[in-house]
Structures are given as structure tokens and as C-alpha cells.
Amino acid sequence: MSKNKERIFFLSRGSLGDCLPLILLAEETKSRSENSDVIIVLPFDIKNEIESFFPFLTIEFVWVNKKTNSLCLEEENPKKKRKLNDNNTSEEEDEDEEKEKEEKEEKEEIVLQEEMHEMFSSCQSATFIIFHLFVLEGFSIAEKLSIGCVAVSPFMLTSSPPSGFEESFEEEYPNLYKKLKNSNSSNTITYSEIEHWMWRLFLSDVGDFRESIDLSPNLFEEFENSENELDLPKPIQLLYGISENIIIRPNDWPQSTHMCGFWINEKFSRKIQNHSLEEFLRLKKLKERE
Fold first, then answer.
1. pLDDT category, 71, cuts 50, 70, 90?
2. CA–CA dist 35, 31 (Å, integer)
């Protein structure tokens, strides 16, 4: 591999529907930069669907979470269902349900942490990272590797900072908060970026991951400690795969957030339609023979 060759990594998570827009974006990136390696890192549980329906893709795939994914995907075994008897009280039933809920959450956390670290390991040769907002660890991975990154989303964010977040942020990072609120430069992050999407980078699960890869759990800690009022990090561009012909861009969005239009590749779309129809008919025939 040439030392000067670009290796662009896309990171995504979720269902096939969540990941498909980034697959399309990665394929388009590959077609426009033939001298670059384009790799997309995806969860193992959608591997069969992608290989069945999209065998014509030219990008490289890396699958993560093969071993631990079954922890959360396994179906409940009817034989293992909790059996209630006449001696069970309502309080005991509630306790059992709460215990089951906690065990499920623990399994999901194990899967997520394992997936985060597999993504980090997969990106060691990356020269640039493009991450879905479902994969916020992409920001920290890029920071750790000292490379650039861009955040992307095929849909608009519907979540907002939890109640009391701004007050807690100001209390925890008084110097940084003041700088961000006073900044109106397009060359640095403002509080508008924090409020729009970056607030999630300050939550404890992200902090735990950052600490596990030898980064400070406190994002932008060096800028909080700097006395220079103009000392702020550069903004991370956020690209929405949405058309302004459909949704008018809100005026309160940060300057670093862009609506790029829907990610459509006609050649790719025709192949998907044709191959998906062929695959559908093939599976239908097999089912009829059973």
C-alpha cells in the first residue's frame, strides 16, 4: 500500500435502512476518487443482506461485532421463560421484570463497547473518517489518529440536549462555555454546534470510550484550560443527505451544518432495483417449491 494513498473510512451502525445511505455515499466517493481506498465499517448482522442484494459494490467492507452481536439478537427461548405460580406476588413479578431489563441493558452495553473498539481497531490505517451520527465514537477515533473527519446523517436530528444540559455544561466548563457563547466565527466551533449535535459527545458513555483509547474523557479539555479567549477548536462539518427543496434549512443551525441534497446515484439505484427484483423472484420460487 502506498504511503500517500488516501484511505477513507465510513462508519455506520443500525439496520440496513440506516446504513444504506452511507453505503451509497461511499460508493459515490469511490467513483470520484479512484486512486483512494474507500472502506465502510458496518455491523455484522446486516452482512448477509448486503452481500445478497448488492454484490456489485466496489467499496471494501469491514464487519464488526461478529462474536458479541448474538448477545442482543438471540430470541427468547420459550423453555427459559419465567414461569409464575400462585405464590408470586405482584412485587416479585416487578422485581423479576426489572432484573431482566437490567440484564438486557448490560448485554447491549457489552455489545456496544465491543463494537466501538472493533471500529477503532479497523480504522488504524485511515487517513480520513466519515461517520454516521449513530457512530459518535468516529469523532474520538479521528482525534486519536490525528486525522480529519466529517459527520453525516441521512435524516434530520430530532433529539435535543436533555433538560439542564446547558446549566451543567456551564458549571463543568465555565471558560469553554463563555468562549463558545461569544464566538460567531465560521472558523471555530460555537455553542450552536454543541446544542445541535455535539452535546452527545459530552455524555458518560462517550467519555468512557475516550478514556479506553487513552484520550481525555473530557472533550475539549485543553480549550477549557486555555486563557486565550479566541482559542477554540475548528468546527466539524455535519452533512445532511436532505434536499432544501423538501425541507427549508432552519435559520438557527450552525454554519458548519449543510444540506447536501439526497444521496442518489442513478447507476447504483438501477442496479439495486434490477438485482433486488431478481433476488425477490428467486426467493419466491424457492419458497413455492418448499
1. very low
2. 10
Pairing of strands 60-64, 148-153: unpaired
Q: Do residues 151 and 131 make contact, with C-beta atoms less than 8 angstroms apart? A: yes
Asked if residue 77 has pLDDT above 60, the reply is no
Neighbours of 161 (CB within 10 A): 17
Cell numbers for 3, please give them.
504511503
Of 33, 31, 30, 40, the closest CA to residue 9 belongs to 40
Angstrom CA distances, 203 to 155, 228, 232, 252, 283, stand at 22, 26, 20, 23, 44
pLDDT reading at 70 higher than 50:
no
* 217 burial via Cβ count (<10 Å: 0-12, 13-18, 19+): middle
